Amino acid sequence: MNPNLPSEKRRFAAAYLRCFDAEAAAQTIGRSDGIRMLTTSAVQRELELQRGQCDICRADIVRRLAQLAFGRANDCVKLVLQEAPEVDALDLSLLSEVKRNDKGTVEVKLIDRIRALEQLMTLGTQSTDCAEAFFAAAEDVEAD
To answer: 13-58, pLDDT tens digit by residue?
Structure first.
């Protein structure tokens, strides 16, 4: 990170890289002008710097795809069925969309597991190392 950059802009860049939502990142640091902050050259330089420091590797991506493809939707169901669920304690990573109509009917959409599996297959056919990472990640998910 750039030590000459005000910490607020560094924190904004870090928050933005976690969620890719400028307004949410701004709220994280107590501001409300996320889009404006995102367009400043200082923040853009910090984003490039922080992106370069990310150590996300292929195995991490394969592991995450496996978690999405084989994960359990229990917490997504709890969100809808419980009167006052503790949302922060729920794992909603499989949740894609929640709708409630004026009659009170709730519609829940989960991520497309078939698509996640297709991505895993694509990654698996690209190299044998990736296939091994896929099976290791799948075993990790099944153990959870």
So the answer is: 988 887 778 888 999 999 999 989 999 999 999 988 887 776 555 6
30 φ/ψ sector (left φ>0, alpha ψ -120 to 50, else beta): left
What long-range pairs does 112-120 form, CB within 8 A, spacing at least 24?
Answer: 113/68, 113/69, 116/65, 116/68, 116/69, 117/69, 119/65, 120/62, 120/65, 120/66, 120/69
Measure the CA–CA gap between 75 and 94, rounded to whole angstroms.
9
Q: What is the dihedral of CA 59, 63, 66, 71, to 10 degrees?
A: 180
* Residue 89 near residue 79, CB atoms below 8 Å: no
Q: Beta-carbon neighbour count of residue 44 at 10 Å?
A: 12
